[in-house]
């Protein structure tokens, strides 16, 4: 029987709504969308799409680490951008974190993201146990 476990870490930004940073259901980890918030201060990084993307992926990494997963365990990534013109920069930085066993992925442009950020990324990870 599968169990549902709520996961949160102080090494990633606290949820800004009624949700958890991640949920583990069986061997699958569902990571909530991360935006470029600094975990310690909850301040937004707004110094450009490159810095924002690095912070988002650092937040994802902290949640994965807390749950005992890595970027290699990610099977699906969803990227949301406020401007598709940022795609090339985000894609280049994304490739620095997902260096092998890259997941399935989509990238979509949306009208507005939480706190008016430029990028949000969520992932689903899985591993056999």
Secondary-structure class? alpha+beta
> What is the global morphology?
globular
Q: Describe the biggest sheet?
A: 6 strands, mixed
Q: What is the topology, as strand order, of the major beta sheet?
A: 1-2-3-6-4-5
Helical proportion?
A: 10-25%
CATH class: Alpha Beta
* Number of domain modules: 1
Per CATH, what is the topology? 60s Ribosomal Protein L30, Chain: A
Number of helices: 2
N-to-C order of helices and strands:
EEEHEHEE
Strand content: 25-35%
Instruction: Give the CATH superfamily.
Output: RutC-like
Counting DSSP E segments of at least 2 residues, the number of strands comes to 6
Rg on CA atoms, Å? 14 Å
CATH arch. level architecture? 2-Layer Sandwich
Q: In terms of per-residue confidence, which ranges show pLDDT below 50 for 5 or more consecutive residues? A: none
Q: Distance between termini?
A: 14 Å
Average pLDDT rating: 96
Topology:
Layout: E1 4-7, E2 22-25, E3 28-34, H1 49-67, E4 74-81, H2 87-97, E5 104-109, E6 119-126
Parallel strand pairs: 4-5
Antiparallel strand pairs: 1-2, 2-3, 3-6, 4-6
């Amino acid at each position: 029987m599968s169990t549902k476990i709520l996961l949160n870490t102080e090494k990633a930004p606290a949820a800004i709504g009624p949700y958890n940073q991640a949920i583990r259901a069986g061997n699958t980890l569902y990571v909530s969308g991360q935006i470029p918030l600094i975990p310690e201060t909850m301040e937004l990084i707004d110094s450009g799409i490159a810095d924002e993307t690095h912070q988002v992926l650092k937040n994802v990494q902290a949640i994965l680490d807390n749950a005992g997963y890595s970027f290699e365990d990610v099977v699906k990534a969803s990227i949301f951008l406020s401007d598709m013109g940022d795609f090339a920069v985000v894609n280049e930085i994304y490739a620095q974190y997902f260096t092998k066993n890259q997941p399935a992925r989509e990238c979509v442009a949306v009208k507005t993201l939480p706190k008016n950020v430029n990028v949000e990324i969520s992932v689903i990870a899985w591993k056999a146990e």
